[in-house]
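User: Predict the full complex structure for these chains.
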Amino acid sequence: MLLLQLLINGLQVGAIYALTAVGFSLVFGSTKIFHVAHGAAFTIAGYIFYMLTVKAGAHWLVGLAGSTVAVLAFGVLIDRLVYAPIERHEGSFFTVFVASLGVATIVQNLIGTMFGRGFVSVSTPLSKGVEVVQGVYVSPLVGISVVCGIGCFLALHLFLTRTHVGMALRALGENRDLVRAYGLNPRNLSTLALALGSLLVVPGAVIAAASSGLNPAIGAHVMLISIAATIVGGVGSLVGAACGGLLLGMAENLAHWGLASQWSEAITFVVLLLFIIFRPAGFFGSAIKT
Amino acid sequence: MLAYLVNLTTLVAINVILAVTLNFVIGYAGIFSLAHAAFFGIGAYAAAYVAMHFTTDFLACVAVAMVLTGLVSLALAMPALRVRGEYFVAASLGLQILAVTVFTEWKSVTGGIGGVVGIPSPTIFGRPIVGTTAFMVLALVCLAITLAIIAALVRSAFGRNLKAIRDSESAAGAFGKQVALIKTFSVVISSSLAAVAGALYAFYLSFINVESFTLDTSVLIMAMVIIGGAGTLAGPIIGAVLLLVLPSALSYLWFLPPTEIGSIQQILYGLALVLLMIFYPGGLAGALTRGAGKDRQGDREAGAVKA
Amino acid sequence: MTEKILLEIRGLSMRFGGLRAVDDVTMDLRAGIVTALVGPNGAGKTTLFNLITGHLAPTEGDVTWRGASLLGKPSWMIARNGIARSFQDLRLFTHMTVEENILTVMERSSWLWQPGGSSRRHAQRAKVEEILDAVGLADKREVRAIDLAYAERKFLSLARIMATDAEVWLLDEPASGLDRGSYERFCALLRAHVDRGITVCLIEHNLDIVISLSDRIAFLDQGRLLADGEPQSVLNDPHLSSIYFGERAA
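Assistant: Here is the predicted structure of the three-chain assembly.
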C-alpha cells in the first residue's frame, strides 16, 4: 500500500518535474544557452502566485495570470538584457552560464529578503487527500498535475510541429544559418524560446505552492532537476526531458520507501551519475562526445 | 583593530586558497565546477574528525583531508569528464547538493545541523599553535605553498597541457594529449588543495557546520574567481580580497538592516557577475591586463619604428 | 607506385542519419609522397580525416597503420602512433603564445613531470627555435595565437605539426587564403619535409596548388572515391572535371 501511495506521489512530483525540465531542455536545445536561471523563473512564478492569492487575497485565477505575466517578463528580459548582449560579443558557454548563475543568485536572495527564508504555501482544499483504497490517499492535485503536464506538453508539441514559428524554433538548435536563410531572426526566436521555456514552469510552481510549499532556495533544486532530467533524457530531446523528469520524480518518492525524505536530492544525483557513467547519451540523445 | 586585521587576514588567506584552486580548473583547464564548497567541507570535516579522534598534528590532519577529498573528486571527475563540459557542471552541482545532505544527516561524523564543536588546537611537530597571530602565520604559510604549487604547475608542461585542452580540446587530442586523464588530474589537484583550506578553517574557528559549505559558498568562490579574472594568477586573489572586504564595508552602511546584509551581499555578487559577463568577460584582472597588453603592443610598434 | 604503404583505408563508411558522408572508400597512403584529396564541398574529405584520426568512429570499414587496426583507438593514441593533422579552422591554442603552442606539442607526458630531464628540455628548446625560424615566427614568439595575422596563424598551425615526430601529415586546406609570398614559403617548407621522408595527405581546392605539390590525387564526390592515381590522368578525366567545375561554378 505504501508503495502505491509513493507511486502516486511520484506521479504528481514527476509531472511537475517533467514540465519544468522540458522548459529547460527547450531553451538549451534550441539556443544552446545553459539557462541555470530557469530555477529562478520557477521561484518567481511560485512566489507571485503566493503573494497575489495569500497576501493580497485575490482569486487563484488572478494569481495564475500574475505569475504567467511575471515569468514571461522574466524570460524576455533575461534574454534581451543579459544573453543578447553577451552573445553579441562572444557568447561562450562559460560566460552565459556565469551570467545566468548571477541572475539566479540575485532572484533567490531578493525573494529571501522580501518573503523570508522559511517555507510558505498556499492552502487549498484541493491538496486534501481522499482515501481511495485503504491507506492510500489521492488528492485532486495529483490529477491536476498529470492533466496539466500532458496538456501543456501536447500544446507545446503541436506548436513546435504545426506552426511555422515552432518549426523555425526547432531548426534553430540544428542550424542557425538555415533559420536566417528563411528570413527569421535567430535573436527573436531565442527570446521566444526563453519566454516559452519560462512559461512551462508556471503549472509546476503553482502546484508546488499549493502542495509541498516553496522556499527561496527551491530554485537551486529545480535547476538541478531540470539539468539532470535533460541529461538523463538526452540533450536535445523534449520527450527525453519529460521522461527524465518523470523518472526523477518517481525515484525521489520511491526512495522514501527505505530512506528519510532528506535524501531525495541525493537520489537525483545518484540517478544522474549512473546515467553519466553508463549511458551518457541519455534515453534519446545521440552525440555527446566533444 | 589589530585583532580585527589578524582575523581578516586569516579569513582572506583561507578564501584565497579556495579561489586560487578553483581558478586552476576554471581558468586553466576550462572545467566549471560548482562543488568547490563541497570539497572545502569534506576537507574541514575530515580534519576535524582526525583532530578529535586520533591526533591534533596539523600535517597529519591536512594529509588525511587532502587524500579523502582527492578520492571523492576522483570519483566525480572520472565519469563526468569523459563527456561534454555541461555534464561536469551538472554532476558537480549534484555532488554539491548531495554533500550538503550528507553534512546535515551523517550526525555521527558531522554533528548534523549543529555541526562539530570544540575542535582542538592543532600542533605542528608537537608544538601547539595557539593564538590568532600564530594561526594567521600558519594560514599565510599554507597560502604561500598553495600559490607556489599552482604557479609552478601553470608554468610547467602540465599547465600547457591544460591550457591547450581549454583552448581546443579536439586539437589537443589530435596532438596526443590524453584529454580526460589530464582534466581528471587537474580536478583532483584542485580539490585536494581546497581541502587544505578546509582544514585551516576547521582549526581556526574550532567549530564548523554545514552552513559554510553550501551551494552559496560555491557560487561565492566562483564569483571571487570570475570577478577577479579567471585564467590569471592575480585575478582570484583580487577577487577574494574584494569580496571579503565587501561585507565589512556594507556593515558600515547604517541604513541597511543587519539581518539582510547576507542577502544584500549575495545580490551584489550576482549583479557583479552579470554585469562583468556583459561588459568585461575577462574579469577585473582581464580588463587590466587587456589594457596593459594594448600598451605593450603599442611599445613594440614604437620600437619597431625606431629600429 | 612502389612506395611502402603506411596507412590503409578499407571499405570505410560514415553515415550521419541518412546522409552518407563517406561511402565505402578504399585507398592507401604511401610513404614519402604527397597525396591530394580533391572534390567539391561536402564530398567527405574532412570527414575522412576525422575517421582516420579517431575524431569520429566509422559506421563500417577499417583503417590500419603499418598493418595494425586503428579502429576504436582514441585520437591521442592515434596521434602518438605518428599521425599529425591540421584543421580547416586551425584550432590553435588561442590563448597561448606562439612558443607555447609549439612547445606543448612536444611535451608528450600527461603527468606532472616530463621524462628526459634537462638535456631533453634543451633539445626541445633548440627544436622550437629551429621551427620558429623555419616558419618565420621567431619575432612573434611571445604573441598569443589569437593576436596573430591570418597567414601567421596558418604557419603556426603548420609549425605545430612540424613539432611532432609524425611520419604522416594530414593537412586540411593548409594553403587556402595565403598570399603569393606566404604560399611559396609554404610550398618550400612542405617540399623540404617530404624530401626528408614525411608522408603528406592534403585537402585542397586550388588546382594549381594540387598540381604543383602532389604526386597523386584521390578524387572524392558525395562520399565516394571516384578516382585515385597520377595527377594528370585524374585531372584530365572529363567526367571528374565536370563534377568539380560544375560544382565550383554553381
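The first strand of chain B starts at residue 116 and ends at 117.
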